[in-house]
Amino acid sequence: MSPAGPQPQPSAQPAAQSSAPVRRDDRVLPATRILAVVLVPILLTAFVILYGFPADTGRLFAWTIRPRLTPMVLASAYLGGAWFFVRVVRERRWARVSAGLLSVTLFAALLGLATVIHWDRFNHGRPAFWLWAALYFTAPFLVLAAWWANQRVTAPPRPDEVCVGPVARVVVAAGAGLALVQGLVMVALPSAVIPVWAWQLTPLTCRVVGAVFCLGSAGLVVLRDRRWVRLRLMVEVEVVMLTLMLLGLGRAHDDLYTDRPLTWLLVTGFAATLVASLWFWRAMAGIEHRSG
Which residues lie in Low complexity bias regions (predicted)? Predict the structure, then answer.
C-alpha cells in the first residue's frame, strides 16, 4: 500500500455529456404544423360568416358589427390568415413562413385586449363569443411559443438566395411601418380616429380594424433579412387581403363617408398597394425563376 493511503479510483461513469446540438435544418416543426391545422378551419369559418353574411353578425357572430364594411375588412384578415397557415402546413422551410407569426401574435393579442376592454359589447350567451374569447386569450401565447420553438432550427442564409433590392427594401419597410403606426393609433386612440375615418366605427370596431392594419408589420422583416424567401408569402397574404378589402368597399360603398378626405386616401392607397404588390411579386418571382 502506498504511504499516502489508498488512491482515488477513476469514475466508472464518463462525465455527463452535453446535450446534442440542435439540428439547424430550417424545418417547420410538427407542433407548428399542428397549430396551423387547428387554426385554418376556424379562420375559414369566420371568413364565410363575416364576408358572406356581413349583415347577420348579430345572429351568427360573437357580437353585432355595424356597418357591413367592418366585418368584411376583418374577414379579409381571416382569409389571408387561412392562406398563411395552409402554407405553414405545407412548407418545408421555416424561412418561408417565419416572418408572419410575430404579426399574427400582435394581431391576436390586440383582439384579446379589445375583448377585455369592451367585454360588455359581446353576446356572451352565444357559442361564437366563447370561441372568439378562447381563441384570442390563447392564440397570442400559442403562436408566439411556436415561433420561439421553431427559431431554434433556423438555418443560415444560403449563398445563392435571391434578395430584395435596396429601393424595394426601403419601400416595403416604410409601408409596413406606416401600417403598424396606423394600427397602433387606432387601438390606442379610437376617439381621435373615429371622427375622420372613412366609415362608421365604434371604439371596439376601431380597435379591431387597427389590429388588422398591424398585420402589415410582417413586412418589417426586410430590415434584418433582405432575402425574398422571407417576404414572398407576406406579399401573397397582402394581395389576398387587399383584394377582398377593395371588393368589400365596392359591395358596401354606401357605408363610405365620401365627404371625408381619408376615404379617398384609403381607397387610393389600397388600390395602389395592391397593384404595386402584384408587380413586385411577379418581378421577384421572375428573378427567382431565372436564378433557380
Answer: 12-21
Taking the C-alpha atoms of residue 216 and residue 182, their distance in angstroms, rounded to an integer, is 10
Nearest 5°: the CA angle 45, 46, 49 is 90
With cell 426586410, the residue in question is 222
The tens digit of pLDDT for each residue in 241-263 reads 999 999 999 999 999 999 999 99
**Contact (Cβ atoms closer than 8 angstroms) between residue 247 and residue 60:** no
Greatest distance between any 2 Cα atoms in the chain: 104
Decide if pLDDT at 217 tops 70.
yes
State which amino acid sits at residue 5: G
Q: Are 260 and 196 in contact (CB under 8 A)?
A: yes
Residue ranges in 53-68 assigned as alpha helix (H): 57-60
Helix/strand/coil percent split, the chain, to 5: 75, 0, 25
pLDDT category, 21, cuts 50, 70, 90? low
Cα 162 to Cα 292: distance, rounded to the nearest angstrom: 9
Average pLDDT over residues 132-155: 96
pLDDT tens-place string over residues 77-108: 999 999 999 999 999 999 999 999 999 999 99
Query: Which residues, 6 or more positions from 142, have their beta carbon under 8 angstroms from its beta carbon?
Result: 35
The C-alpha atoms of residue 263 and residue 112 are separated, in whole angstroms, by: 28
